[in-house]
């Protein structure tokens, strides 16, 4: 069985990070080893939260895994709770990377032009170095601009996205993918939403119906589904299509739930029926 190490926080409430990565990757038939960067009562999108940073523990955990001779088919990083944890992720990748280990970095730090609470400006600089080690990076538009040290582009067109992707690949990542890209049809206000990728030679994108609902954690669900598809041997183009489809189904299901919560996507409702998509 394939095995992934995923480095991100555990938020007790709020469907993000490890609470979505572990079930999604497990449903794809892959062993998912969660390396917790922090434990939070709930994610930082709520007005208040308790956070216990686990930076010291991270180094002890990685030393023991290494002593036990454990290997991983992929290392996938998500929300890192502080700038020193970005250094840890870099060290972990260097320690555990073998010839065929895939490295996926989701540079979780901002959305809609704003840094997440707790993320400091020096974080983006460190994140740039981490991204340079990756096989695939999955920023949203805000994160892509931050990684490049550019001003946020509010309503980018496809040309803007392609330029960002080309620059991101020049900074070192083998493949770059930008999420949350909207494709507005001329007379269809709902338009479509999806992702565009660049592998250094070719651009490809995939879009699904845009549902008028913004939920925290959508990027984490996307990156987890993409990682699972890649580790199961799918090419990036297929993995991108399937991850966009999976997120679309989950957001659709959340939208039709009269009791939906603002803080999370009902991915549980689609996971069992969509597990084949991730294989
Ligand atoms: O979904 C990204 C994310 C993950 N983990 C924590 C967060 C956020 C976004 O705010 O606060 C703790």
């Amino acid at each position: 069985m394939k095995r992934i190490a995923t480095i991100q926080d555990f938020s007790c409430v709020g469907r993000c990070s490890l609470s979505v990565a572990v079930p999604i990757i497990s449903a794809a038939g892959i062993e998912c080893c969660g390396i917790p960067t922090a434990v939070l009562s709930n994610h930082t999108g709520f007005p208040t939260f308790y956070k216990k940073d686990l930076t010291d523990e991270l180094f002890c955990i990685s030393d023991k895994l290494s002593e036990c001779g454990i290997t991983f088919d992929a290392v996938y990083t998500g929300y890192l709770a502080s700038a020193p944890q970005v250094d840890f992720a870099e060290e972990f990748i260097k320690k555990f990377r073998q010839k065929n280990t895939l490295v996926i970095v989701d540079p979780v730090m901002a959305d809609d032009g704003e840094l997440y609470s707790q993320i400091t400006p020096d974080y983006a600089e460190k994140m740039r170095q981490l991204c340079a080690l990756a096989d695939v990076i999955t920023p949203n538009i805000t994160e892509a601009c931050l990684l490049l040290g550019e001003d946020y582009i509010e309503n980018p067109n496809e040309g803007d996205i392609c330029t960002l992707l080309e620059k991101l690949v020049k900074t070192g990542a083998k493949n770059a993918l930008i999420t949350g890209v909207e494709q507005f049809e001329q007379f269809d206000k709902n338009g479509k939403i999806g992702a565009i990728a660049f592998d250094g030679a070719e651009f490809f994108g995939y879009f699904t119906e845009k549902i008028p609902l913004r939920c925290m954690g959508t990027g984490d669900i996307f990156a987890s589904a993409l990682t699972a598809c890649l580790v199961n041997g799918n090419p990036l183009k297929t993995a991108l299509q399937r991850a966009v489809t999976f997120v679309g189904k989950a957001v659709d299901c959340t939208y039709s739930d009269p009791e939906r919560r603002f803080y999370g996507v009902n991915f549980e409702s689609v996971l069992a029926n969509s597990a084949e998509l991730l294989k």
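The CA atoms of residues 10 and 39 lie 5 Å apart. The radius of gyration is 17 Å.
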